[in-house]
Amino acid sequence: MTIPKDHPRYESLMRREKLKDMVERGIVDPTGLISHGRGEAFDYLMDEKSVEPALKAEEAAAAFLLNAKNPVICVNGNTAALCPKEISVLAQEINAKIEVNIFHRTEERMNTIIRFMEDEGAENVLGRKPDARIPGLSSDRALCTKEGIFDSDVILVPIEDGDRAEALVDMGKTVISIDLNPISRTSKTATVSISDDISRALENIRKFAIKMKGNEEYIIETINTYDNSQTRQETINIICFILKNEFQKEA
Fold it and tell me: How many other C-beta atoms can be found within 10 angstroms of the C-beta atom of residue 186?
């Protein structure tokens, strides 16, 4: 399908086409299309831009990741399909490991996603040979590596399942979520809840990491002053404000 570049929803439509292609390649599970559409709906409600609370959360995310002893970026099918290069670049910037973890798990699909990530620049991607389990989970998302997810102290989980986010928090980890829905179970559970488009969020985290790298005082102050409940409330307030304004415009 040829999508004209002047179409008002060009980028959105191109992403949908990409996800459809990734389903055919076995990287994205068909149910991932529903997840993407649900998130995109919240992006509309925030004018499809990084709102101020998202930037606060992304700055905090960079600080926590730089301050971590064993930071890990977790990758599922949708994340791999949409942002393989962005994940790879961020991991290098913050010296983080990358581990693939998926709900609809088969050995073939795991290998397909990991090979795809490595072809896109990711190095030493973990997940092929799980040797640990996340306590409290019965699904295959409990499977992980001790080197990566299990022993991580700070973990970035884009497009996450709420039950696994809760399990990771219960393990004592600092969990950074990227979830456009500020009232999802994942957003409510995470230590740092980023309500932003995944591509924008990853790029913003990278830029903040470059800005604060080597500045220990900046990093610690950002961590100590960040308030996730307030950030989530500010995000909800912005959504309500935008909805109210749109209604008033039409009235």
Answer: 21
Considering Cα of 176, then 180, then 182, then 186, what sign does the dihedral take? Answer: negative
Structure tokens at 136: 């409290």
Whether domain 52-240 has CATH 3.90.1150.10: no
Note whether 100 and 80 are within 8 A (CB). yes
- Strands, E, within the chain: which ranges? 71-75, 97-100, 132-133, 143-144, 154-158, 174-178, 192-194
Give phi and psi for 38, each to the nearest 5. Answer: -65, -40
Q: What is the pLDDT of residues 73-118, one digit of tens each?
A: 999 999 999 999 999 999 999 999 999 999 889 999 999 999 999 9
C-beta of residue 232 within 8 angstroms of C-beta of residue 194: no
Radius of gyration of the chain (CA): 18
Which of helix, strand or coil describes residue 188?
helix
**Angle between helical axes of 84-94 and 107-119 (0-180°, round to 10):** 70
Domain boundaries defined on the chain: 52-240
pTM of model > 0.90: yes
Q: Where are the alpha helices (DSSP H) in 137-227?
A: 162-170, 185-189, 198-212, 216-225
